[in-house]
Amino acid sequence: MGHMLNNTIQDVLIRRARMQGKNACWVPGTDHASIATEAKVVNMLKEKGIDKKSLTREEFLKYAWEWKEKYGGIILEQLKKLGASCDWDRTAFTMDPGLSDAVISVFVDLYRKGKIYRGVRMVNWDPKGKTALSDDEVITKEIASKLYYIKYQIEGSANEFLTIATTRPETIMADVAICINPNDPRFTHLKGKKAIIPLINRAIPIIEDEYVDMEFGTGCLKVTPAHDINDYELGIKHKLEVIDILNDDGTLNEKAQILVGEDRFIARKKIGKMLEEINQLEKVEDYKSNVGHSERTDAVIEPKLSLQWFLKMEEITQPALKSVMDDVIQLHPPKFKNMYRVWMENVRDWCISRQLWWGHQIPAFYLPNGEFVVAKTKEEALEIAQKEYDSKYTLADLKQDEDVLDTWFSSWLWPISVFDTDVFTTGKPNEELKYYYPTNDLVTAPEILFFWVARMIIAGYEYLGEKPFKNVYLTGIVRDKLGRKMSKSLGNSPDPLELIAQYGADGVRTGMLFSSPAGNDLPYDDKLVEQGRNFANKIWNAFRLVKGWEIDPKLDGSVNSSSIEWFENRFNQALAEINDHFEKFRISDALMTTYKLVWGDFCSWYLEMIKPEYQKPIDQATYNKTIELFEDILKILHPFMPFISEEIWHQIKERSVEDSLILAEWPEVKSFNTKITEEAAQIFEVVSQIRNLRASKGMSPKEALDLSINTQRPELYTRFQAVLEKLANLSSLNFASKVENAMSFVVKADECFVPMGDSIDVEEEKAAIQKELEYTKGFLNSVMKKLSNERFVAGAPAQVVENEKKKQADAEAKIKALEESLEKLG
Questions:
Q1: CA distances (Å), 484 to each of 407, 481, 489, in order?
Q2: How far apart (Å, rounded) are the C-alpha atoms in residues 224 and 243?
Q3: SS3 letters for 261-272?
Q4: Closest C-alpha among 355, 359, 445 to residue 410
Q5: Closest to 443 in 3D by CA, of 462, 469, 464, 461
């Protein structure tokens, strides 16, 4: 559902750009998703009774490519059903030959620049995927845990113990020290002494460091450098030993001495019981702890010392940070700028190696002398090795690094590599890259703002000295009714293709966009796509209505001139709003303005205003103008609802493929008179009030009514008299300051009377007017609060302030008219 929302937004933007006459290029593609794909392939092999360990790398990759060919294109086919108008001939995959070559070239280049290095560091280890992860691939979740209070005996004392609180008792065998705060008077007497690790009876020193929080737990800390990043730093500072007791799959190894081969979580429970049995478990408390999980496999992350490849980030990130902070690249909404800044200012070196086979194999070649050479190919590596180390080396002496590169290490090149894969070696962009780079818009999710967006910006400045795109539109997360993120694992996400089959692609597209402003989460409900489908039905029925009219060329169309003039003004007013919303990336607002224009103004008002009587013809001029207006409506609908708009476009009249709506010109805003639209809105309000009056009094819509109006502007009602009489079913329209035995209502400053004979209830009428008066006073009060707020008046656009002042004037005039109505009723 998240992909559906994201790609709908992209398609809306690209279709509109195409209609604006721009060379609109939308490159579709997929990445190879190293961790997730390898996990899928391993599971597939298990089902066939094949263990990955029994295969060579080449054999495994053969299965992986088969899996990719079978499943890799599914999402692209789904996007076609959604209506995504990509440049499908440009479809790219991060492991295509050219793109792969670019990745390897970049690795070699950055290594030779001294920006990539190999070293032992504490990394995030995924025991399920059996690979290192970068910091960004770790999702922190708050989980219900236990805090174990373990008693460590002081060496040389039979009865003295030190209690340590930990959530991970399974790591006590890797403890190398106990740390106390030098300012803590409770432990002064223990300085220089040792404590005994329970169960394995190994003595460890008691050290001092102000890092220890005297208020947390028992005020002292067990130090396990191999299994905690902070302990690791503490270990370096105090030159402590590192004991790693975990295997790559999260089971205990021989260094643990006990429970060898047990899973870490099973070992946790067993050690708790073993400590209890020897009376060295003081107590266990429920505890909420923040625990890192693998973004791909959801396994609990283990901090692990590991020999990995890293990209130095401190210097290379600076241009990317500055460009976003200076709005050279704009984030929509801009609230994400602070998140971006915090990430970039606190960035750590990027661990780019992964212990997998599916992906781009690291171009480092190890030599018999323990050295290694980095080169694009084994042959190039051999030349360097012979020159720098030993001329007798052969290809057989070189062994390529087993690891692959992080998937994002290829995805970060995407805005460049899809146009030119050679620029990373030549340094000279080809004509296509010169033309399309920098691109305009990127639509993506906030959770990969650093994963992908920041890294594409980094690569853009590193290799082209230029931003990769101008705008980054960040979608919200699609959530269910309970506020949970929709996901396959939770089973709370509908199948997008089933939704399309049930509600139509246009219905689903608009449904997703009705309530998804940039950066805000979308609370999904089937009612949204139902509303989208109903909107499509409304448009189709409007088309059937118009095409069903018979035309009489002899008829005079002047009776509809005011209706046509109004809708043309209203259309251009709405179009200006829609364009403004698009420019500010308010895609949902652009849709809602379109929706109200089409459903409300065009279908509910305009078509009713010009519709001929039952089985009677319409004049030629009105019909032609209506078709022209309908075509303009189809143009602004097209980015949102491409299927129905294109279908109607070709049914209105026979058109060639070259004349398809997807290639039509986006309408230009013509001048419009807001006075006309405001006056029409007043007429519509009178019609609505009369319809409400009929409903409240149980009067038939077929019963014609007289209407009298007390107004200073009779010409307004005269100009729209035909519309009023038709839509409100009036027998006459009169102007009077007062009418006896009539129900009345107020529209702006005008009081309208509908004679009711002797059936009027004066007290009921007074109560209704009083209720309306109180509501209008409340409304005026809310408007005045806004206008009395200096920050609002100073900061809001002039047009917004002017609209509020107009609301004030209208409300004051209405209050005056309502108060006069009450006086007349006594």
A1: 27, 7, 12
A2: 8
A3: CCEHHHHHHHHH
A4: 359
A5: 469
CA distances from 818 to 738, 774, 780 (A): 13, 10, 14
- Per DSSP, 218 falls in state T
DSSP 252: B
- What's 198's DSSP letter? T
Q: Are 251 and 264 in contact (CB under 8 A)?
A: yes
DSSP string, 667-691: PPPPP--HHHHHHHHHHHHHHHHHH
Q: Which two tokens stand for residue 67?
A: 């899996």
Taking only the tens place, the pLDDT of each residue in 799-818 is 778 888 888 888 887 787 77
CB atoms within 10 A of CB 237: 11
Residue tagged 């805000």 (tokens): 520
- Concatenated DSSP letters for 224-247? -GGG-HHHHHHHHHTT------B-
CA distance 756 to 741: 6
Please identify which residue in the block is written with the tokens 């890192």: 292
Count Cα neighbours of 537 within 13 Å in the Cβ-side half-sphere. 7
Q: Which of 444, 532, 527, 521 is nearest to 479 (CA)?
A: 521
Q: Angle formed by the axes of helices 762-787 and 798-825, to 10°?
A: 160
SS3 state of residue 202: coil
Neighbours of 701 (CB within 10 A): 11
CA separation for the pair 528, 581 (Å, rounded): 21
pLDDT tens figures, 583-623: 999 999 999 999 999 999 999 999 999 999 988 999 999 99
* pLDDT tens, residue by residue, 398-451: 999 999 999 999 999 999 999 999 999 999 999 999 999 999 999 999 889 998
Task: Write out the DSSP string of 614-676.
Answer: TT--EEHHHHHHHHHHHHHHHHHHTTT-HHHHHHHHHHHS---GGG-GGGSPPPPPPP--HHH
Quick one: which H or E segment has residue 590? helix 587-595
DSSP state letters, 472-536: EEE---EE-TTSPBP-TTTT-S--HHHHHHHH-HHHHHHHHHTT--TTS-EE--HHHHHHHHHHH
CA atoms of 447 and 795, how far apart (whole Å):
31
Burial of 797 per CB tally in 10 Å (0-12, 13-18, 19+) = exposed
Q: Is 147 exposed, middle or buried (0-12, 13-18, 19+ CB in 10 A)?
A: middle
User: What span, in angstroms and rounded, lies between the C-alpha atoms of 252 and 659?
Assistant: 69
Position 148: which residue type?
Answer: Y
**Residue 105, burial from CB neighbour count under 10 angstroms (0-12, 13-18, 19+):** buried
| pTM assigned to the model | 0.82
Residue 174's H or E segment, with its range, is none
d(CA 617, CA 540): 21
pLDDT score, position 627 = 97
Q: Is 211 helix (H, G, I), strand (E, B) or coil?
A: coil
Report CA 693 to chain centroid distance, whole Å: 46
Helix, strand, or coil (residue 158): coil
Residue 489's pLDDT is 61
